[in-house]
Amino acid sequence: MQNIIDQYTSEIKAFTAAKAEELESFRIKFLGTKGIIKDLFEQFKTVSSDEKRTFGKVLNQFKQLAEARYEEVKEGLGSATADTKSDIDLTLPGDGLEVGSRHPLSLVRNEIIDIFKRLGFVVAEGPEIEDDWHNFSALNFPEEHPARDMQDTFFIRKGDKEQGDIALRTHTSSVQVRMMENGKPPFRAIMPGRVYRNEAISARAHCFFHQVEGLYVDENVSFSDLKQTLYHFVQELYGEGTKVRFRPSYFPFTEPSAEMDISCTICKGSGCNMCKYSGWVEILGCGMVDPNVLENCGIDSKKYTGFAFGMGMERIANLKYVIRDLRLFSENDVRFLKQFQTEII
Ligand code: DAH
Known about the structure:
It contains 12 helices and 10 strands. It has helices at about 1-15, 20-30, 35-45, 50-85, 105-120, 130-135, 175-180, 225-240, 290-295, 315-320, 330, 335, and strands spanning about 120-125, 130, 155, 165-170, 185-195, 210-220, 245-250, 255-265, 280-290, 305-310. Helix 2 (about 20-30) runs antiparallel to helix 4. The two termini are about 75 Å apart. It binds 3,4-dihydroxyphenylalanine.
């Protein structure tokens, strides 16, 4: 036994390794579960009790030597690989981090919010899953109004039961109702959000899109306040000199109601594909909040009046960036999105 130990002691002392595999072989040979040291400890069990003291000591020292040498060589090998064996060239320039870009709808939404914030409007939000009351009834939709038809609205069934009165909101006007029900006038808010309609998806229609609703309720609010507010908004968004015109229209929740056109942002009114050669493009619906709606929300319609408006964000973005296919907004094609690279502050 002593002979074997002497022989291996010089081998261990002389051991060096150029590669990790050599070190691993050393570990297996001496320190492994079937290695020499394990074997020597097995033999040690058979040594007579007189010899046990001396041999025990020799054996332990031998084991410590092997372990220490293993650690030493491992350390040397580690720093050698880092310095010379690595194929990483630290002098190469790193990969640049690509800066993301904002979605065109976010750009438009933020711009709209900015403009109205400067006029003292706050931002409000409401749920996308709505009940009949907030989406239709409180907004003065008659019971048999075609907009409640299955064609337009995604109704939600409760379990196996019959179709309930829960639906995906078809417009952000529902947020007006929630706001007025839960507060006291004056109200001055814009409400951006996603809305849903039961439409086949094509370049010109989608089953979801985005709207921004506006509401201003106070004493003595008039139609001229509505016109001036929206006129200012358009000058800010599309530039000074953009013309506006109001056409009479109908919405159940406003009386009188109007649709607002602006002079075409692409051809400046001279006629193009975008404005179908009319020089005008429609951007929103608006009107004076119907007294029935105010009363439905617990607001005294003798004391308060208000105006409201609603616009499609995709339309606003289209007139800014000429995005002709609605599907592009939701497909997340990076080639499309990258075109809206903005400075990140
Ligand atoms: N909710 C209407 C729609 O989805 C848009 C609208 C029109 C909103 C007139 C209004 C409004 O607040 O006054 O088509």
